[in-house]
């Protein structure tokens, strides 16, 4: 049993580290937003594992908030990229309309 | 006795969820382009999270907080596809997708069909 708990912790930590590797390597901003999403998923899983280990329901509201707000980051980054691309194409060609 | 069995099932669920998280991390580092990375990243966000929530509920048996857990799963199921859809759409339309890796590309024909204004 203890070994299983340790394995859960190690796997989640390794997942976070790999997500951070992708976060640093990029290459585009969308890749980074995606890896932040995965980092957040690992964090949710980690808090959940903590709550399960200690049988402690006080961590559940935090999970609720994280699962609600987690997608705001990637959505806003995506919208930002789209808008910047539209601005660039309209500057360059005067008629570009790709969003 | 029953408690022990339920605990083992809960730990199994949590372990599978953690494994999915780890697989997503490996996929993020190993996969070649954004769309395939999005494919691997969605696994822990939905299936992994639901497995972890099942594990939490089983560990807190008999007063498992089913309402909050179902609410968490519901919010995640509602928000993850929205984020994935918008990220994929922006990635395709700003040319951050490797076209040599796509086997069938229906969207390309659609975009060319109406002059790329959609």
Task: Provide an overview of this structure.
- The complex is a heterodimer of chains A (99) and B (118).
- Chain A has one domain: Helix Hairpins.
- In chain A, helix 1 runs antiparallel to helix 2 and helix 2 packs antiparallel against helix 3.
- With 99 residues, chain A is mostly helical.
- Chain B has 118 residues and is mostly helical.
- Chain B has a single domain, classed as Helix Hairpins, CATH 1.10.287.
- Chain B is built from four helices and no strands.
- In chain B, helix 2 runs antiparallel to helix 3.
- The longest helix of chain B is centred in the first third of the chain and has 29 residues.
- The model of chain B has no long low-confidence stretch (mean pLDDT 86).
- Classes of the chains: A mainly alpha (99), B mainly alpha (118).
- Chains A and B meet through helix 1, helix 2 and helix 3 of A and helix 1, helix 2 and helix 3 of B.
Compose a concise summary of this entry.
Helices cover 85% and strands 0% of the residues of chain A. By secondary structure, chain A is mostly helical. The relative contact order of chain A is 0.10.
Q: What labels describe this entry?
A:
heterodimer, A: 99 residues, mainly alpha, Helix Hairpins, 3 helices, 85% helix, elongated, disordered C terminus, B: 118 residues, 4 helices, 77% helix, Multisubunit sodium/proton antiporter, MrpF subunit (chain A), sodium:proton antiporter activity (chain A)
Structural class of chain B: mainly alpha
Query: What's the gyration radius of chain A in Å?
Result: 19 Å
Low-confidence stretches of chain A: 95-99
Q: What CATH first level of chain A would be assigned?
A: Mainly Alpha
Distance between the amino and carboxyl termini of chain B:
61 Å
Number of strands of chain B: 0
- Tally the beta strands of chain A: 0
CATH topology of chain A: Helix Hairpins
Transmembrane segments (chain B): 6-29, 41-61, 67-88
Family (chain B): Belongs to the CPA3 antiporters (TC 2.A.63) subunit G family.
Organism (chain B): Marinactinospora thermotolerans DSM 45154
GO molecular function (chain B): sodium:proton antiporter activity
């Amino acid at each position: 049993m203890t070994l299983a708990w340790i394995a859960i912790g190690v796997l989640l930590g390794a997942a976070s580290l790999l997500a951070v590797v992708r976060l640093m390597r990029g290459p585009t901003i969308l890749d980074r937003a995606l890896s932040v999403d995965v980092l957040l998923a690992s964090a949710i899983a980690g808090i959940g594992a903590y709550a399960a280990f200690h049988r402690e329901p006080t961590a559940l509201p935090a999970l609720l908030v994280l699962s609600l707000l987690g997608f705001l980051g990637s959505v806003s980054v995506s919208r930002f990229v789209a808008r910047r691309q539209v601005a660039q194409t309209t500057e360059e060609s005067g008629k570009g309309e790709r969003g | 006795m029953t408690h022990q069995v339920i605990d083992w099932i809960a730990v199994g669920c949590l372990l599978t969820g953690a494994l999915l998280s780890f697989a997503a991390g490996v996929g993020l580092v190993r996969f070649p382009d954004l769309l395939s990375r999005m494919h691997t990243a969605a696994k822990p966000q939905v299936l992994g999270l639901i497995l972890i929530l099942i594990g939490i509920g089983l560990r807190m048996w008999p007063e498992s907080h089913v309402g909050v857990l179902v609410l968490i799963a519901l919010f995640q199921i509602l928000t993850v596809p929205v984020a994935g859809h918008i990220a994929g759409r922006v990635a395709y339309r700003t040319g951050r997708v490797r076209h040599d890796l796509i086997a069938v590309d229906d969207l390309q024909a659609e975009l060319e069909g109406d002059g790329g204004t959609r």
